[in-house]
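Something for you to look into today, if you have time. I want to see for myself how the chain folds. Leave the record below and I will have a look.
***
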Amino acid sequence: MRRKASLVLLAFAVFFAALSPLLRWYAFPRLAKIPAGQYQDMVLEARNATLLDYGTMKAKKVSKVTIVQTLKGDVEAAQRIGKAAGRDVVVWDGLSYVQGPDGKMVSEIPERYIFDAHSQAPVHATGEMVDGDPVRRTGIEFKWPFLTQKRDYEYFDAQTRTTNPIHYKGTRDFRGVKVYYFEQTVPWTKVAFPKTMPVKGITPESVAKTGTTRWYTTVRRFWVEPVTGAPVYGEEIHKEELRGGTLLGGRDKVTAFAGHVKMREDYIRHTVALVKSNRTLVLTMTSYLPWGFLVLGTLLLALSLWLEARGRRPADPAHAESAAPEPVSA
């Protein structure tokens, strides 16, 4: 019985020991994915900001500028593109909608972002765009990869349509969550006017005829939970200027928008709670179960060897002597 039990335990030990790396290196990349149909929104605010009054073409201080960012997954497009690419992809239709303190639209910029469901690496396909302009992204946008590392990443900037390094600046604690802090500075760059302008009758083409150009710079900051790769908080020190041309009435430049953009408090609380929950799920696949299976396999192996050793132990000498048959005498 001991021999059979030790063999059964040995089989289970081998099973759990093999399951440990299989779960981490095979199952995790195939199970940990961004849902194709995910929808999320985020509200950011810049208080005491500077905003251009297009009626007077003068910059003025306003109490608040609100930016509403939405990301909506297109499941049908993801299935079509994923089939052609031979992997699971996510197609996010994003919209960044900026409104002034009176609720009126300042700008709106749509995006289509296509990326690998697990690695978050861009997947290039027809329809990839920013504000209607075709783009070919490199680097990440919106989200870091699962198991984010302490290093610099390439991050795509939708305003300039360029990719620049976003630098790892250290590990911090954000409301009880261990996070990696990243920062990117985009220098003053000439950028396109939004296709949808805040004043009726004014188009990017009509502004271009005046010789006026739009320039932009920002300092972008993210606090990223490294297990899920999800930012729990983000902010930007954002500046835009109009420069030159007859539209400014002889002035060299005028501020179009300047403000310290931060996530609204209720969205911070919601994001932190969501990330904590998802973090547990990812750790289950990458740490808790793999290490648990490995420890269990080791214990079962030790128990199997112990039973095998006991089964091979010789019988008690005293018992053996008493049980020995006596010689037969004639």
Summary: DSSP finds five helices and twelve strands in the chain. The mean pLDDT is 91.
